[in-house]
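INTERNAL AUDIT FORM
Audit reference: QA-55
Scope: verify that the stored structure record matches its stored sequence.
Auditor: D.O.
Record contents follow.
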Amino acid sequence: MKEYPFRQDKEDLEELLKRYFDRKSGRSNAYLDEESFEKIINHFDETEDLAQAQEACDMAVEQFPYSSALLLRKADIMIATRKYTEALAVLDMAELLDSRDINLFILRTDAYLALDKQEKAVELLENALQYFEGEERIDLLFELADVYDDYEEFDKLFDCLRMILEQEPANEEALYKICFWTDFTGRNEESIKLHQKILEEHPYSELAWFNLAAAFQGLKLYEKAIDAYKFAVTIDEKFDYAYRNMGDAYIRLRKFRDAIEVLEKVLELTRPEDVIYEAMGHCYDRLRNYAQARFYYRKAVHLNADDSKLYYKIACTYINEEQWSQAIKQLETAMQISKSQPDFNLAMGECKSQLGEVKDAIYYFSQVVRSRPKAANGWKALVRCLYNGAFYDEALEQADAALRQTDGKAIFIYYKSIILLAKGKTKEALLYLERAIQKSPRGLKEFVALHPAVLQNQAVVDVIARNKKNGKQ
């Protein structure tokens, strides 16, 4: 055994290059065999000296005109230097010498794609599949998959990966890729069948369990997805993506404590990410542990300070605790980043309204209806705010505008009724109340919530009772 093989290789290459340049300059006529030329060409290719590589190819092919390997190498260098048509001509010559070399098909494919002839590339590779088996067939299928990717034939790309896995179920590259393309194409049922079959032969393939779980998740079969993810992490305890996806599945099932547990495992295994902290904040938020939710939302903010929605979510935890001033501080930061977000304006209007700053609240609610004129929530908040501030004429005008914009939603008929009562127009108010009840009896709750004392008005109670009786009949 040689003590310093790398030094020896370097010395051998230096000697080859000296002989090559001496021959090229005419200083000698030293003989170089095919293997030597290949080493010289590879050296120039690796050092990105493609002009020298091309000259070496020309000299090699001149000396060995019947070497298909050197012709293929020449075509490869030509493709690298964008001489696609010339490369195809060289490949035609190589085919006469060896028509079954897989590199012939791969290089032709590269040339066709570079010339924007995807159809020819597809036809070539599809025909070539019948001539190859084993690893070579798999190489061609990967090449064909790349062509379909460029050509945006994503279902056919999925088919290529499926065929690879049918031939070689443990192929990691195909297992990694098919998970993405299953989700992209929505072919979850096929993926489930494929991976169940793979797992019959390879029950300890964590990637197959992961892909099976992801396909179940794509069909919203979250319980089955979680079971499959558990197999994946049993095989590979550090499979962070399985824990991450399992956390999402638990959230979808509203099992927030379980989600927190697996998301904590993600944080143990990987570098912190804002999306994981945000997901944990969401879980605590839904568990009404607002202080802990804020803790994780703030951790997310430290990693992504430009995400306005994180400040909004922190604000919402304060709103849920009726800490209006604290919520406003967070909303102000959010609105510095994204001023025109309707949700931010709606929340800010609510905070201002609760603090008795009615004019400011009206301004923010007006911004909401301006950006979302067809949505009822902004109009409801605006009309309620005007009513609570005793701006009855303006409230009535905005209720009418809301009716026009929302195709006559019953809630705004209820609102007109209660505003008219406040203005002392009882007869007209009762007519609107009756019309609203007939259109949507459920809206009565919001009607009463706006002004609970309205139930002390006997005329109102009579209208409600009469319409309830008629509704039962």
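Auditor finding: record pair retrieved intact. DSSP finds 27 helices and no strands in the chain.
Action required: none
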